[in-house]
């Protein structure tokens, strides 16, 4: 608790590490809107320890970007230590990512796909804890049962972990199958260990923060998606999206980042506006924008469209716009994006699959069931124009080269095939424009430059 209280300043409002999203400019914007602790994006320890350019970009920070925790992923304790030693002077702690559930983490064998390898994790946490001058923290996902999750947390604590972030979802809960996080796992871990525990999951507004702290007993809450859609959620505010968007662009101009990061943030901030069918053209423009001027122009266009409604100069009727009737707030305000529940998603996927099965039943002209491949071939044949039966198809006669049996080039000056023409030009110092063979021209150029060079040498001497 001393580390959480004195080194970090007892933060309760925390922004999660987000790949391609929690760069310096966004961290500074989040801090301005109430975040008390931020993480860097997940950094690959092997690349970080070997690539100076990657390292310099990853450690981009400033005096206002404190306290900061640098997060690494990897599966080699020595490599993780090498990376952490290079970063320890720039942050308050090193975090080990044991919670990433994405396919890239599965391929690289890190993140949540290390959660069953306890000896390896114990070695990794223990090594960093002993060799670093700053604390080591971990971010994990819950396991299948509360009992196993508690044992997992105790193992990490015994290895030297000084703070633990527990995500209330399993590694299988992601994308359309995300669902709700189970805070009871966080509560059980908090009651079982003696280090600070942060709760992650289900944080979309400040009311969620209050409820989570009360139900779990955690010292703080961490949010990722909630922060991206409303960076002001820790201030209990829902500002018009163009306000944080323009502030963010100002920060990006001071602390540059890839255009893809900026575009991604703007898509999140204006998600509900761009989901309106009549604004599809703006969505296309934002997707194609690749400079700050274009980003600003699109933000101003949206601001001019909705500011009269925001200021009450015009009356907003949400029923006139599709996809906005289910929103609790007008679409131009920063607010959470609520995913459909996994059960509804699976039901919709099943219905779509059944419809596709019906569509995929192909039949020929006689009613016989055939494959999709054969149906496509029959359709191509049916589109071909019929060949006249009375006119026989004759193969065009080929004129042969004068020196061999190969067909001659249609534009050859000497009525030869390319091979024979090349030999003739080489032996007789000729050019053939038809075959683009320039033996004579190139020889003359070589002689010209050779004589020019020899003349320069004579002048120098």
From TrEMBL:
GO terms assigned for molecular function: flavin adenine dinucleotide binding; tRNA dihydrouridine synthase activity
Catalyzed reaction equations: 5,6-dihydrouridine(16) in tRNA + NADP(+) = uridine(16) in tRNA + NADPH + H(+); 5,6-dihydrouridine(17) in tRNA + NAD(+) = uridine(17) in tRNA + NADH + H(+); 5,6-dihydrouridine(17) in tRNA + NADP(+) = uridine(17) in tRNA + NADPH + H(+); 5,6-dihydrouridine(16) in tRNA + NAD(+) = uridine(16) in tRNA + NADH + H(+)
Transmembrane residue ranges: none
UniProt-recorded name of the protein: tRNA-dihydrouridine(16/17) synthase [NAD(P)(+)]
Organism in which the protein naturally occurs: Asbolus verrucosus
UniProt similarity note: Belongs to the Dus family. Dus1 subfamily.
CDD domains recorded: DUS_like_FMN (cd02801)
Keyword flag Cell membrane: no
InterPro entries for the chain: Aldolase_TIM, DUS-like_FMN-bd, tRNA_hU_synthase_CS
EC numbers, comma separated: 1.3.1.88
Domain DUS-like FMN-binding per the UniProt entry, residue ranges: 15-252
Keywords: Flavoprotein, FMN, NAD, NADP, Oxidoreductase, tRNA processing
Cofactor(s) essential for the protein: FMN
Record flagged with keyword NADP: yes
């Amino acid at each position: 608790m001393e580390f959480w209280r004195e080194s970090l300043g007892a933060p309760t409002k925390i922004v999660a590490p987000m790949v391609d999203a929690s760069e310096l400019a966004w961290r500074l914007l989040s801090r301005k809107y109430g975040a008390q602790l931020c993480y860097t994006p997940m950094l690959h320890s092997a690349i970080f320890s070997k690539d100076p350019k990657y390292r310099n970009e990853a450690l981009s920070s400033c005096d206002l970007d404190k306290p900061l925790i640098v997060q690494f992923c990897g599966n080699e304790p020595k490599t993780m230590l090498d990376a952490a030693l290079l970063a320890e002077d720039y942050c308050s702690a090193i975090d080990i990512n044991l919670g990433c559930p994405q396919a890239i983490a599965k391929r690289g064998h890190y993140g949540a796909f290390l959660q069953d390898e306890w000896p390896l994790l114990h070695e990794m946490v223990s090594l960093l804890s002993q060799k670093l001058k700053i604390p080591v923290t971990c971010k994990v996902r819950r396991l299948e049962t509360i009992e196993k999750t508690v044992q997992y947390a105790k193992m990490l604590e015994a290895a030297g972990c000084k703070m633990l972030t527990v995500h209330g979802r399993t590694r299988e809960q992601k994308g359309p199958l995300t669902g709700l996080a189970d805070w009871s796992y966080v509560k059980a871990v908090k009651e079982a260990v003696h280090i600070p525990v942060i709760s992650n999951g289900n944080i979309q507004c400040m009311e969620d923060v209050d409820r989570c702290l009360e139900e779990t007993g955690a010292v703080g809450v961490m949010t990722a998606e909630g922060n991206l859609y409303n960076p002001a959620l820790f201030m209990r505010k829902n500002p018009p999206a163009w306000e944080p968007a323009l502030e963010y662009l100002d920060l990006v101009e001071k602390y540059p980042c890839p255009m893809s990061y900026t575009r991604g943030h703007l898509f999140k901030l204006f998600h509900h506006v761009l989901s309106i069918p009549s604004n599809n053209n703006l969505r296309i423009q934002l997707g194609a924008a690749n400079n700050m001027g274009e980003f600003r122009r699109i933000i101003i266009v949206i601001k001019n469209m909705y500011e009269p409604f925001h200021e009450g100069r015009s009356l907003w009727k949400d029923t006139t716009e599709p996809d906005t009737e289910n929103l609790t707030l007008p679409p131009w305000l920063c607010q959470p994006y609520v995913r459909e529940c996994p059960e509804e998603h699976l039901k919709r996927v099943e219905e779509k699959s059944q419809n596709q099965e019906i569509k995929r039943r192909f039949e020929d002209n006689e009613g016989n069931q055939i494959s999709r491949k054969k149906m496509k071939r029959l359709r191509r044949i049916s589109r071909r124009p019929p060949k006249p039966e009375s006119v026989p198809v004759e193969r065009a006669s080929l004129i042969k080269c004068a020196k061999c049996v190969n067909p001659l080039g249609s534009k050859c000056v000497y009525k030869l095939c390319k091979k024979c023409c090349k030999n003739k030009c080489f032996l007789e110092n000729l050019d053939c424009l038809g075959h683009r063979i320039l033996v004579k021209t190139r020889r003359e150029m070589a002689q010209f430059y050779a004589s020019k060079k020899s003349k320069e040498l004579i002048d120098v001497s």
